[in-house]
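Researcher: Please generate the 3D structure of the following complex. Treat every line as part of one assembly.
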Amino acid sequence: MTAPVDHTLTHSPVQEYLDSLYERFLPLREGNVADYIPELALADPDAFGIALVTVDGHVYQAGDTRQPFTIQSISKALVYGLALEDNGVEAIAAKIGVEPSGDAFNSISLEDGSGRPLNPMINAGAIATTGLVHGTDGLDKVKRILDCFGRYVGHELDVNESVYASERDTGHRNRAIAHMLRNFDILSGDPQSALDVYFKQCAINVSCRDLAVAAATLANRGVNPITGVVALKRDFVGKVLSVMSTCGMYDYAGSWIYEVGLPAKSGVGGGIMAVLPGQLGLGVFSPPLDARGNSVRGIRVCKEISRDFDLHIFNTMRSAPAVIRAQYDGAQVRSKRIRSRDENEILNTKGTCIRIYELRGELSFGTTEIVAHDITQTMSDIAYLILDLRRVFSIDAAAGILLVRLCEKFAAGGKRVLLTHTDNKFELQRSLRRSLPREVAELATRFADRDLGLEWCEDQILAPHSTTPATAAKLSQNDIVIGFPPADLARLESLVGKRHYKAGEKIVSAGDPANDVFFIIRGVVSISLPVHRKDSTRLATMSAGMAFGESALIGDPRRTADVSAKTDVECYALPVDALNHTADPDLTRVRIRLIENLARGLTDKLRSANQEIRSLSQ
Ligand code: GLN
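Model: Done. Output below.
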């Protein structure tokens, strides 16, 4: 067996805790190694390992966590998942029940009348389950089972041939069970063949660490947290964990779930695998068993861990409430589109009807309800709702339903909802498209990010006021010359020259020498910061009547950002050399006036940046 390398976190409190558990329970010498399968009697009663793997793939282990032993009954849970994938829930339910039996694992008990085994965790149910695994023949079935287990543990596995042979030669009770199943047509074909696959699946070699990784895979909705490989389709994870909860520990299942509260499965090889859904998986290995066939140390260790950390599944915390990262309105925070003074005034009052929620983490019923509750309480004040999903990394079905309903409610009230950063959230996109009128769904998913969505909302509010001049042909219409006396304006006009740029053309690039100040006459420019080779961040978008590149006036030698024409652009360019290095007192006065206006503009920008920071840090 080749197992992956671990980077055990030796100084973690979790590691120290496992080490101390190992020390504490090593001297516990109760129980007996299984001997009804002769080969199992050879197991070392002192072998003992504990492993814990989180859904983030962190591995902690103490003791003999690499020693191979046979998986035995723990295989039943994993094969049940495979059979569900192969046949579907209904076909499996027709042949195997899900009721705890309260009987020993090897009891010869079937449901009256139907002959269905009570559940897939007792031998009768497990042999029936194995019979339902797809495969061209026994060999193929064993191969499919080995591959499946391999996905759970993250590496290739093999069958312990001597344990297999030992059980094949002595497993008369299981043989009786298989024939009984054949009698009731629960097994079809030769019962011997299903039995042979079953004996082999039980004899697969695993380690304690493997069990913990497999358990963590179940805790992680079927995805191996270390390899990222899907071992079991998400739809069936809950089914497997259910039968583990009610039947996984045989006639001890009730006390187990009551005391330990973790879905688990044990095997007579001495292994126990336990799952805390959404958090972690545990594997314990220690061959001496109690009278019911469960590992004595295994049970003690699980009890202890569950009690010390309060891991009982029915004692779970409320789900993370901090799903709302920030919440503000369109008067508090503006898009990166630079607006004229008049437009800013309008947004200062009317912008409050744009409401932005930045969400983060996992959207589930619990966390999304918090958002929906908050929004619906003040719904009457909102005309535009932006839900920024950039930091949301999962949206489950329940959250999807709530979001769709929210969109419906808003659309019905003539309001607009934008969900930004949905491009990688395929399931949400699908349900929005399925359930909402086309235009509503389209608008909801149109904007890649919050800033662009916010700009669109602002445009809607500003549209009826249309205060932006489409062109600012005269220099006097530019913000940066506000308050200039005619003589100074005339001087300035004599210095500037017209420039034209085609849509898409670069006007300045970061690093270029800063030679001119630009006054936009017509068109839209976008100022952005290159972040990666491909991406860039939008710093601002400007239009007619605005100036850019003004920092050249105060002697910045180089451009710090890219500016490009978003539409065809016409502007005046003012060469700064004419102003910066002059003895002419009139020109110096013009320069000072420009710098004063520049400072005023910067003060405004600083004020709104402060306000934005305040809104974001609430
Ligand atoms: N292979 C063993 C049997 O069928 C598995 C039993 C177990 O682990 N409880 O007897």
